[in-house]
């Protein structure tokens, strides 16, 4: 297949783009072409409002209409951006390793939610169930209120040396966040509590996190393999189970 970027949730079939720009969805046990994009290297595919997908590439971002199966819009991106966040309130954010931008009146504007130090490396920015912007990097966690006037207000910031990576948003507004070799923490309104310890496996250094429809937690390793947590124990899957060496950027579930 040679797909670049991958997206799936319970409401949308798994979606990817091949190296020729063909947009593909996994339906009826096979990949079916649903449209054609300009060939590009697409870093990520994220769900937007009004039943649309955002595809983030080196040449910019494309908004794909899932109902009409046409390109709805195209926008340029700031340098280094690899992912977008389209909030429920209609605000569009873009993230690079050291900046967070917002699209305002046709222009990208750097937001105050970016790292305080250049070395922090922003790796997570998601919208919580309460409509807040959660920002994580290696050394800090921050929660921002998106005001009705279009502004941003920092609610909480927590400094740490826990090397945070990966996140899962919870229905109560809290966020699960992974910490290298320690385990999973819960961040809620400025409070950080330890939830699940990691076991000492090659997958203990977490890079990505995912919760399946059955509630089971999965983590993708910074180094090799994926791990699942069930009934108080972790199970690691590596090269012996068909997972190749290398970091796991994302985990998704086939909705079928």
Strand-helix topology:
Blueprint: E1 4-9, E2 12-17, E3 22-27, E4 30-36, E5 42-48, E6 52-57, E7 60-65, E8 70-75, E9 83-86, E10 92-95, E11 100-104, E12 107-110, E13 122-127, E14 133-137, E15 140-146, E16 152-159, E17 164-169, E18 175-179, E19 183-188, E20 191-197, E21 206-211, E22 217-221, E23 226-230, E24 233-237
Can you summarize this structure?
Helices cover 0% and strands 54% of the residues.
Backbone structural class: mainly beta
Strand percentage, roughly? over 45%
Largest beta sheet, briefly? Answer: 4 strands, antiparallel
Tally of DSSP helical segments: 0
The geometry reads as: globular
Residue ranges: pLDDT <50 for 5 or more in a row?
A: none
**Helix content estimate:** under 10%
Number of DSSP strands?
24
Radius of gyration: 18 Å
Strand order of the largest sheet: 1-2-3-4
Order of helices and strands: EEEEEEEEEEEEEEEEEEEEEEEE
Euclidean distance between termini CA atoms:
19 Å
Assembly type of the shown chains? single chain
Mean pLDDT: 82
What does this protein structure show overall?
With 256 residues, this protein is mainly β. 0% of the residues lie in helices and 54% in strands. It is built from no helices and 24 strands. Strands 1-2-3-4 form a four-stranded antiparallel β-sheet, with no helix packed on it. Strands 5-6-7-8 form a four-stranded antiparallel β-sheet, with no helix packed on it. A hairpin with a 4-residue loop joins β22 and β23. The chain is globular and about 45 Å long. The chain starts with a strand and ends in a 19-residue tail after the last strand.
């Amino acid at each position: 297949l040679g797909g670049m970027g991958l997206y799936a949730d319970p409401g949308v079939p798994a979606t990817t783009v091949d190296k020729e720009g063909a947009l593909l969805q996994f339906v009826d046990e096979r990949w079916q072409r649903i449209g054609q994009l300009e060939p590009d290297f697409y870093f990520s595919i994220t769900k937007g409002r009004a039943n649309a997908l955002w595809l983030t590439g080196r040449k910019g971002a494309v908004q794909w209409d899932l109902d009409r199966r046409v390109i709805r819009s195209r926008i340029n991106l700031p340098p280094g951006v690899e992912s977008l966040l389209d909030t429920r309130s209609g605000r569009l954010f873009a993230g690079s390793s050291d900046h967070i931008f917002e699209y305002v009146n046709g222009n990208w504007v750097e937001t105050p939610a970016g790292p305080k130090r250049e070395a922090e490396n922003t790796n997570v920015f998601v919208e919580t169930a309460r409509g807040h912007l959660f920002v994580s990097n290696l050394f800090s966690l921050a929660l921002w209120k998106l005001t009705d006037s279009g502004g941003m207000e920092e609610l909480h910031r927590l400094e740490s040396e826990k090397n945070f990576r990966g996140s899962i948003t919870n229905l109560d507004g809290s966020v699960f966040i992974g910490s290298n070799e320690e385990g999973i923490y819960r961040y809620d309104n400025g409070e950080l509590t330890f939830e699940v310890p990691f076991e000492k496996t090659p997958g203990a250094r977490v890079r990505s996190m995912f919760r399946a429809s059955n509630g089971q937690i999965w983590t993708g390793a910074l180094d090799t393999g994926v791990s699942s947590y069930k009934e108080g124990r972790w199970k690691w899957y590596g090269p012996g189970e068909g997972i190749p060496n290398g970091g796991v950027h994302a985990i998704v579930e086939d909705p079928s």
